[in-house]
Amino acid sequence: MTQLILASASPRRRRLLEQIGLSFRVVPAEVAEDLPTGCDPLAGVMEVANRKATKVAKGESRGLILAADTIVLLAGEILGKPAGFEEAVAMLARLKGRKHEVITGVALRDAAGGKCLLGYEVTTVQMRALTVREIRAYVASGEAYDKAGAYGIQGKGALLVKGIEGCYFNVVGLPLVRVADMLKSFNFDLWSDKERG
Fold first, then answer.
1. Rounded to whole angstroms, how far apart are CA atoms 131 and 133?
2. CA-CA distance, 43 to 6, in Å (whole number)?
3. Where are the domains of the chain?
4. pTM for the predicted model, two decimal places
5. Which one is catalytic: 34, 40, 69, 110?
6. What is the pLDDT of residues 14-58, one digit of tens each?
7. Is 181 a known active-site residue?
8. Are residues 66 and 7 in contact, defined by beta-carbon separation less than 8 angstroms?
9. How far apart are CA 157 and CA 137, in angstroms?
10. C-alpha span between 6 and 21 (Å, rounded)
11. I need a surface site. Which of 2, 16, 23, 127 has the fewest CB within 10 A?
């Protein structure tokens, strides 16, 4: 069985892979996550994911390296991870009552052969018309940090979201069906791995 290696320190991505019963190793990729200046957001997230997969693949002799990068896009502007409390509050104040897109770029690289597949997923998220009190209380909970757009849908952030169009798991940080399709392209048997777990 081909070994799967997750090139991410994200506990959310780790939990999603565990949820579908996959066995994998975690090897975080320390790379710059900034998108190339003036690039298309879709191309940008795939480029960052590819950077991560390539970095980890250099230290591995075999296995499939899975890497991802997620951004929030509001009216064409990328919202990254907030640097502090007030920046997180300001981000959520901009998102409230509006739709935005969550885009995840995914890279899957064969460490031995060098073959690499790139893909992406886009989910539209409609935020509730939040009050200032709700926003500040949410940020005070600590969930807003280390997340693009200053919220996580899988926790208390679920209370901020009115609805979504597309893949829920993409908003959490890893579009599982997209990843499964990419793994199949490498003849990775998702079901037998699950049975052995």
1. 5
2. 21
3. 4-196
4. 0.91
5. 69
6. 999 999 999 999 999 988 777 767 789 999 999 999 999 999 999
7. no
8. yes
9. 11
10. 14
11. 23
